[in-house]
Amino acid sequence: MDYYNPHQVAADGGSVILVEEQPKESIVQTVIRGISAVQGTPECDLDPLYDSINSEALNELMRHSQRVSSDVSVEFTHEGCAVQVRNGDSVKITDPKPDKSGGTM
């Protein structure tokens, strides 16, 4: 399964999902896939991740941390979402914007 807790709600009413890196997928691809899912926007419509963080450095840092079994965490924002990347763990994406669908419970 790609996403966990897709209905989790952030304290400010936004959405939170955890996204697992798929085999042969870079961490950058995982981040983009997660932001796309939480915002309901096609991946191709998102700004390039390198506008927010050095994508190549993020991929290399995560690969290196896995090779040497070190604990690394990187946090940044992209497309208005807070992103937390940890080696050996899922990518956490938080969209602080409440759902604008107007639905009620």
From TrEMBL:
Top-level taxon in the UniProt lineage: Archaea
Location of the Halobacterial output domain: 24-94
Protein name: Halobacterial output domain-containing protein
